[in-house]
Structures are given as C-alpha cells and as structure tokens.
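Work Package 3 committed the consortium to producing structural models of liganded targets before the mid-term review. Because experimental data for this complex are still outstanding, the team generated a predictive model from sequence and the ligand definition alone, so that downstream docking and mutagenesis planning could proceed in parallel. The input record is reproduced below exactly as it was submitted to the modelling pipeline, together with the SMILES string for citrulline.
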Amino acid sequence: MNSFINVTSEIGKLKKVLLHRPGQEVENLVPEYLGRLLFDDIPYLKIARQEHDIFAQVLRENGVEVLYLEELAAESIEDENIKKEFIDEFLYESGITSEALKEALSDYLLSKTTRDMIDTVMAGVRKEEIKIKEAHSLSELMMDEYPFYLDPMPNLYFTRDPGASIGSGLTINRMRTEARRRETLFLKYIHKYHKFFKNTETPLWYDRTMPFAIEGGDELVLSDKVLAIGCSERTSAEAIEIVAKNLFDAGTSFEKILVFEIPKCRAFMHLDTVFTMVDYDKFTIHPGIEGPLSVYEITRGANNNLNFRHTTCSLEETLSKALNIPSVELIKCGGGDLIIAGREQWNDGSNTLAIAPGVVVTYERNYVTNEILDKKGIKVLSIPSSELSRGRGGPRCMSMPLERENLK
Ligand SMILES: NC(=O)NCCC[C@H](N)C(=O)O
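The resulting structure, written out as tokens with the ligand in place, is given here.
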C-alpha cells in the first residue's frame, strides 16, 4: 500500500509541505508568560501573517503544494463523534479536571463550526470567554489571576517540530515542554482520520504517547540511508533509540542514524538551529559548532539489536562520510564574523529550507549570510521576517515537508 509521505532527503524537490498560518494564539502572548511559551518577544500578528503568506506564495510559485495544519485538522474531525473524542482528549491534556468547567468548555467549543473550533483551541480560551453554569467546587468558585482556561499555542507556526517525515513514515513527537505538548494532537487526528491518510499505510516511527522527548527540528534526513538526529535540549537518547529500532525493524532503506550531541541550551535548541543542508555537498552552519563533535553511530546489529559507536570527528568529515562524497562545504552563518554571525544566528541565519538541490528559502534580514550563499551558487529566495523571526525559528522550522522527489 502507498504512503502519503515520502521524504528521503533534506534537499530533494519539495512537492508537498505542511504549514500553519499564525493565528490569534500569537495575540494571546503577554510579557508575563513569554518565557514559558518559548517566545522572546511578541510578534505583530497582522504583519506576521503577511510575511507568512509570502512564504507560502514563494513555495507555491516554486511548485510546492501548501497544506495548512488547521485545515487538515478541521477536515479530520468533521464527524460529530470524532469531534467529541478530540475535544475530550484536548481538554484532558489541557489539565481541565473540574466537570462543570469541562462541560462549559465542551459546549462552547461545540457551538462553533469545526474550523472555528480548531482556531479557538489553537488560540487558547480566556476565562472571560465562557460562563460556568454553577460552581461545584472551591476551585471553580475562586477565579485566580491566571487569564486562560486553555493556554494559547503560539509555537504552532513551527510545524517542523511536532512531527517529522522520514522515508515513508512519520514520527509524531513527544514535545519536551508542556507549552508545546498538545500541538501533536492535531497530527494524531490527521494521521488517524484524514482522507489523505485513510487509504494509505503511513507507518509511525514514534508516537506521542511514548515517554521520551523528541522534536522534529532535531530530525534531518541526510539521504535515504542516513539520518542525523540531534541529542539536544529537546530530544533524548531514549527516543532516538526507539526511532532507530523502528526504522530498522521495518526494513526501511535507512542503514545508519548519526546522533549529534549538541549543547543543551536555547541558543542551540535543535540540530536545525546548528546546521541545515542546502545542496548535495553544502551546509549552512552555526559557527559555534565546527570543532570536533561527539557523534554516535547507530547501525543494525545481530538479532534485531542496535550497534552503537562513538566517534569524535570534525563536522566536515562526519557529513562527507555520511553522504559518501569526498568533501562537503560548510558555509558559516554571517561568514563567521563574530558580530554578524551572532546577530544573524539569533534570527535563524543557519535555518534554511531547501526546496530543491541548491535552492533555499531564507529570512531576508540575514542578508550577509544570504549574500555568501548566493556567491557559492545557491539560489536564495528570501522572505520578509521582521515579525516571524520573533518566535526564534526560521523557514525550516516553519515547514514540515510531506513529500519530496527522491534524489537520482
Ligand atoms: N526547529 C526549530 O528550531 N524550531 C523553532 C522553535 C521555536 C519555538 N519558539 C520553540 O522554542 O520551540
């Protein structure tokens, strides 16, 4: 049976991608909760949307079919029973324990069209939006200062992280932080109920119910044989092992998982904050990551076990070996200049989205890195990014490829 997913590289011509157009969830960001919601500043929604629309338009103009998470999610739960199942699960995962509140929120959500309901759960529900009929408990009676019944999910426009396409399957991830954990519910329902997936067989290499954290920004498909996964602030060694085991057990083309141990801090967040592939032999990199790296290789072992090997090669050597080519070129964000690299890295200068070999989408504000890429023969399609960049993610973070052409 066919799968809806086909991603066997980071650079093969992009055919289908999943995005989320920033919505009211961004307007529910307030300074008090920025840190917990993983933002450093508040984007101006109107402009963020214009920028995001340009991103989608650039993709379309280059032959990419753009699908929206919010639309697919709504289409998946149109059936009344599925909608109720979704709401129950969503409220449970949002920590709603009081029966009266659960009822009030369910009624409120069910009174909307499915698409409005999806937008509402994404945006969050403020306390003033609903009335509880009658308080049955002290906690219902005592309204504390916290403004939301359901927290907003402002990170949804980084569709890269809740799931990842690998080969013909998906990982639906367990997000490290509470702030992003419910995001993966949408993918669960899409994978289970959407018509695109219904008559296909799309295996899951990882499932959101598993206890170990993994995020898509750490998952890079270097080729149909080699995966790179960052063991990072967001992704654990245990989850990587499970993904490796499932890929090998299913008899996929993947032969090796390279586990990059990267510093566990926000500046390095995910592996795709540190490097992204832009052409057959070219990568953009965070200048801080060049030195000898701790990399672990996972391969198939005897009796369905995994083999592990620790190496400490340079990034260059590791990547050229992985791709089976004589050498790779590492293009430093900001040309390696301390100030420029610092500034452009802060705005995701190394986080490019390749839409074909040697063709990338980047933020236009990273003009020094963009010029360097251009001089190296890379076609750079840059998009405005004053507001989108405030969420600390670039074009790769804002996109989840569903289908790429296989490389010849
Ligand atoms: N792959 C990525 O690096 N995604 C960027 C996610 C940014 C978001 N504010 C977060 O902290 O999760």
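Reviewers should note the following from the model. Residues 38-39, 155, 158, 160-161, 180, 217, 269-270, 272-273, 391-393, 397 surround citrulline (CB under 6 Å). These observations will guide the Year 2 experiments.
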